[in-house]
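Hi team,

Filling in the usual template for the complex we talked about on Friday. All components are listed, including any nucleic acid strands or ligand strings, so the model treats them as one assembly.

SUBMITTER: L.P.
PURPOSE: interface mapping
COMPONENTS: two
RESIDUES: 1033
SEQUENCES:
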Amino acid sequence: MKLPINPESFLPLKPHWFHVLLSLADQEQHGYGIMQEVLARTSGKVRLWPATLYGTLKRLMDEDLIEESATRPAPEQDDARRRYYRLTRLGRRVLAAESERLEDLVRVIHAKRGARERRAES
Amino acid sequence: MTHATNRPVEIGLRLYRALASAFPYEFRNAYGDEMVQMTEDAIDEIWRRHGVLGLMRLLLDIAVRVPAEHLAELRQDIRYGLRMLARSPGFTAVALISLSLGICIATCAYSELHGMLRDLPGVANPDELVSLQAPSSYPAYQRYRALNDLFSSTFAYVAPVPFGISGGGHTERIWGQLVTPSYFSTLGVHPALGRFFDRTYEQSGGAPAVVISGRFWREHLGSDPAVIGKSLRINGYPSAIIGVGPKEFLGASPALFAADIWLPVTVEAHLAPELADGALDRRDLAMFQVVGRLRPGVTQAAAEAELNAAAQQMQQSYGDTDRDRKDPRVLLLDAGKMIPVRKQDLPFFREFFLVLGGMVLLIACANVANMMLARAADRRKEIAVRLALGAGRARLVRQLLTESMLIALGAAVPGYVLCVCCMDMLSQLRMPLPVPISYDLSPDWRALLFTLALTLATGVAFGLVPALQTTRPSLIPALKEGGHIQFRKYRRLSLRNALVLCQMAASLTLLLLTGYLGLGIQGTLGVQEGFNPRNMYLISLDPVRDGYSAQRAADFLEKLLLRVQRLPSVTAACLTDTVPVAMDGNAGVTFSTPGGPPGGAHVEWARKHVVGRGYFETADIPIVAGRGFRREDEAAGATSAIVSEYLVRAFWKGQDPLGRQIEVGIGQAAGGIGGMPGTIDYRTGALGSGRRLYEIVGVAKDVTEDLVVNKKHPAIYFPLRPADYAQPSLRGVTLMLRAVPAVDAISAVRREVTAMDSKITPFNARSMAEQIAQFMSMLKAASWTYGLIGVFGLILASVGLAGVTAYSVTQRGHEIGIRLALGAQKRDVLALVMKEGAALVTVGTLIGLAFAWAGMRALWGMFFSVASVAFSDPTMLVGAPLLLAGLALLACYVPARRSTRIDPVVALRQD
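RESULT (copied from the run log):
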């Protein structure tokens, strides 16, 4: 019997991992698709190079955060040669945990910035 | 998707595909195609956006990931291996223990070898140095020195030489050497302080000067930086310190003659009694060790030939009696090593150590390999499934190999640490010789490297074969249920069985060899015949080196003897040079009976003893005929000698020897590597060639005092003369006394000495019991070591056999279940299982006996010198195999018993 894994144990998440998990949050994707989406999302700043990407995918699979998707998308969008990936339940929880952690950080930054501005004004 | 024909992109893609094929098998299978596909899709866009830099970045990306993936796999293998090992703690523990012991012993053997064959510390270009095996006379050295085409420089030295260094009211006996001025320059050492001897010291008559060693400077002078020019009282006379040697330097032969102080050979005789009577001009005093540095391009053989020619010429021109001898007079040794050996002897040394160590390690490895085979066979099904599902064979082999490497590395650490401890203990072993022999055997970085290499080799050795065997692609028998039932009619020699055979054979060989050595040594311990060692005490004195003249020393010793004899607690006392049970193994004389038969004119060898009046009474050695020595025998021209019973029996067949004459010359026993250090006698009286006639005045009973108790030697006793006090041997003059029991005789003697003259310092005070114990300690240690090694091999072999039988039982569970179900008795099943074990034991024993016999023939010479062993001794020859066989069968029996408890129903249902 496997012990339940605490999603917090994965935090802080490596940036690449976060990007991949985020890409798979809404839909299943294949490798190329993930790369494209991350590229678009970050306005060209983060490019997941192929070897690194597949290394990351392998690790995520080993850690049981993603899995290969059994269902295929609609035939028009499907590419038979590619494999599609999706999040596991654990993956989702880890993504949520990491997002929350990042949001907390941003809140703290905003609070600090606000305080600094108020002090500058006074 | 087609790309526009774009040269850089094409090349980039081709390189990319090539690199992608370097990924590990599993990764390639899973993601390889996809990855390449993705790159093909993206590469145009990358080219457009980033140009050449983009392509390079792409290739760099994959180039970095390839080794990273391999490393990740390795980490996984290691974690998996550790988990597997932890799951079977029994196997892991046994494997670790046997391997670490094996590695320890092998590394110890290497360290010992290396310690002996290490280059001399502090010396420049040690492989150019050669020395003459036998000491030469000074004129001979001068002749050799002139051979400029052979040597770039040479030197000669006398060693070992004791010096009495006085300070603070008492004298300490320090060992040093008398050297020619070219000593230090030829060796290529530079002084740490001050300077060394130069050419001005070739003439005698200068102010006495001395060079001290770094060790002496540290230990006795407290590293005083202002030591140069200070005066040191040597043998009672002040000498100036002109230099301090470099830190580790202890002379030209530090293992045998470690020197703390050097004086030039041109010093006055009172500083060095060895050089009295014009020793430098005498042709018959061969007490100088000669060392030379060969010119580049000159071989040892060529040098030997030329030296021989020179030696022969000298003999011809002086009209020596043996000038027409055909055999070589001069043999060269490699002088650059710690222990000088002949090039021919080197392989013997190496082989002995490495074979012994290697055999032990081999047994350990075979053991572990066997266990791994058994273990791997258990996982056969799992591995077969993995292979069928597409795992790479190479990957599986690597995984299994990782496990063995983990065991090997895990065993290497304790093995090395244990080796360091053992070598430390060994280095502290003191040899019972008058000269302190020091050898540093502690393992250095080279030993560590050797251990590591050995570890890796063993890891592969015992891991590879099981791994290869288990992953053989013949899956069908493993996958088929019940496919492994084999009713074997004829025993096939499987690999496992072969390994067990090797193990048994090697163990038996080891056991026999070490057993003979160990038992042989044990047999000689503690048996001294011929004298009474109880309540005997010995204490040594050397008044000459305390500053006395010869005459004064003689007077002092005579007076001391009288005073000691008058002590109430002393029943008998005498002065003597040689004592019973001492390492005098090779010092002796040759003798022959002049004229015709009955003894014949053969030249025989006898042990030489120089003893004072009252020796035989003090030591309780009966005189069976004639008399002991009297005062008149000590006169200058007297020629009395006493012989041992054995000599009379052997050479005169029991006829009355009293009044007969024998001709005595000097002679050193041949054999081995030359005389044992400390027994070499450089004194004029001892080394003068030419034979003298002696008259036999008494016959003493035999005294067995050798390392080997059964070997009897003929012995000749000579009287100790007062003239000998001027040039005492390396042992000094020994006062031997027998006292009343339970009394501290040594302190009483010390008090007498101090009362007579507080400056005289006696040394080496001991009781006879202590002397004997020290004498035997070395042998005891050796016999224990051999015993342990033998036992270790035995245990390993038994464990191995038990493992194999246990495995066999599990494998044949099905078969045994069927037999039981069909009506076989438990006895029959037991017999069935034991039969296989018994067959292995028998064959292994036979092979082992053969190897042991071969081994003993090869090591014959070495054996004979330390153990009185008859190789046909039935106890060993029958006992050892029986012991091994018995233990092995017992080891078989225990797992075999399990087979009888197999429930046929359960066995049949199992896979």
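MY TAKE: Residues 481-491, 596-600, 667-679 of chain B have pLDDT under 50 and may be disordered. Residues 524 and 709 of chain B are 5 Å apart (CA to CA).

Thanks, L.
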